[in-house]
């Protein structure tokens, strides 16, 4: 067990912000993590668990201990004629897990191809894309209770999953570290084409097999979302707002062209990208922070941006959208500091 002092987090946040942690430690097992949590550094400083930082915005240097899992193994726990139960370490790159499943012809996570970040963070954030969410395929999440040192198995319902949220972000924030997750994948072809654009694009390529779906998702994402290695970003910066149907009818009278998706009989989801574009933010910059020209829901680091600059741009966008539409955009990205 090694705790490093003054550790640069530039490689641990996809915004590519120059920031550092007072202390940093990685762990590959529950035992290693227990050793860290019994150290004096852990007891005397705040702590933060991170994956690859693909959903974090550091507003300054982190004054405490940053913890990172390096458990990257994947194994088949059990299988039968129709399904496979896989266990993957929290530190495995999410897209490596997707590639592994696709290569083995196991269905369920192909629509989540190319989402940045690690398996543990996927369980915290309930990542989603093209009609599939992490919670649709998850069997259980193995965690360490950071105050008792006890290992626990949490079921899907224990995790309280919702749109880009879970108990790990809300009621149990800071309580657990994800050690590994178990996913149930299917051997039978079960394409999810609830996102119409995906089906069209897959059919253009001729066949709806796993490799083609993965390839198509990668092509769509690459066209719309900047590669964080080239242009720092954290994917969608805000969640798509869900409004009561009454509010939507009001807005619809004024903006009949406003895109919308029914969530339930009472609620309608409106794409934040459309709201931001209508407010004239698409492609604009404020200092070194910018709004991506091909997908305005993505805020980018134009080079040398600080976390505060990005947060400042986000606040301006929130204000514009609120003034024009009376809708409060909520960041999907977690602010640290
Ligand atoms: N739109 C515009 N202008 C644009 C781009 C989009 O008006 O320049 C409007 C269009 O109406 C479009 C709609 O926004 O139909 C939706 O756009 P898109 O399909 O790109 O998806 P999104 O709602 O912006 C969500 C997720 C993404 C996920 C995609 C695909 C959230 C916050 N974002 O984006 O997730 O990849 O759908 O399923 O739910 C992420 O969470 O980091 C992320 C990238």
Structural description of this entry:
- This protein has about 325 residues and is α+β, with helices and mostly antiparallel strands.
- The chain has helices spanning about 30-35, 40-45, 95-105, 120-125, 195-205, 210-225, 245-255, 270-280, 305-325, and strands at about 5-10, 20-25, 45-50, 55-60, 60-70, 75-80, 85-90, 130, 130-135, 140-145, 150-155, 175-185, 230-235, 240-245, 260, 265-270, 285, 290, 300, 335.
- Strands 6-7-12-10-11 form a five-stranded antiparallel sheet, covered by helices on one side. The protein has a four-stranded mixed sheet with strand order 1-2-5-3. Strands 13-19-18-17 form a four-stranded antiparallel sheet, covered by helices on one side.
- Strand 17 (about 285) and strand 18 form a beta hairpin.
- The model has no long low-confidence stretch (mean pLDDT about 95).
- The structure holds uridine-diphosphate-2(N-acetylglucosaminyl) butyric acid.
- Uridine-diphosphate-2(N-acetylglucosaminyl) butyric acid binds near residues 235, 236, 240, 259 and 271.
- Uridine-diphosphate-2(N-acetylglucosaminyl) butyric acid binds near residues 235, 277 and 297.
